[in-house]
Amino acid sequence: MKIVIIGAGNLATHLSFALQEAGQEIVQIFSRTAISASELADLLKVPFTTHTDEIVADADVYFYAISDDALESLLQLPFAPDAIHVHTAGSVSMDVFVGKKSNYGVFYPLQTFSKNKQVDFKMIPVFIEASSPEVESTLFKIAHAVSEQVYKTNSEQRLKLHVSAVFACNFVNHLYHIASEMVKSADLPFEVLKPLILETAQKVMQLSPEEAQTGPAKRNDQGVINKHLDVLGDEHPSLKKLYQDLSDMILNQYLHQS
User: Fold this and answer.
1) What's this model's pTM, rounded to 2 decimal places?
2) pLDDT digits over 60-84, tens only?
3) In total, how many domains does the chain have?
């Protein structure tokens, strides 16, 4: 299967290596940024281009691993009308292809990617949506070549999945940042929180989030909660409100369950 990767960012990098290691033929990297395109192409030992009129036209599948805004403009280009065109976004409907491409789909890997942090793509869930049974069959074959977890979803399901991923990953990581700044204000390193972070993540591998919940809000320990709110004080009004809102949500959930 001849594949063109459109994009050279975090997802494009990891996806390209996974596809190549699975025996797929990456024939070209396209990116508007020459440095990132050349770096990825050099690692894969394939050609690259930064010009849309130089994108090869005889590939079987074109993976668009780019920002949502860039996707719209690139889909207007008429190259490879009979090939399969696939985007990798969590929150973009498959309908974005309608009227622009004949054979199309979605190939969404649910993971957070950073170029310098290796991941085991085999363990990453991949969610597939396709314009026809033939395209679906092709995308499932590619997905099963790189991942042990492949699911068929529609655009509505995938959007809800993306929202859940933002809560589970992006928001949680920002809370890590808040915790890091708070512990630094106590003249302690962020490293002291890492065993707690690790245990919290490992616990939900065995227990449901409801079963794993601990802390003063679940216990309805208003004395501790008020002490924490005093620490945040007027100096951090947004954090104080966030702490109170999250505590209220946890408290209400477990009071309701009891």
Assistant:
1) 0.91
2) 999 999 988 899 889 999 999 999 9
3) 2
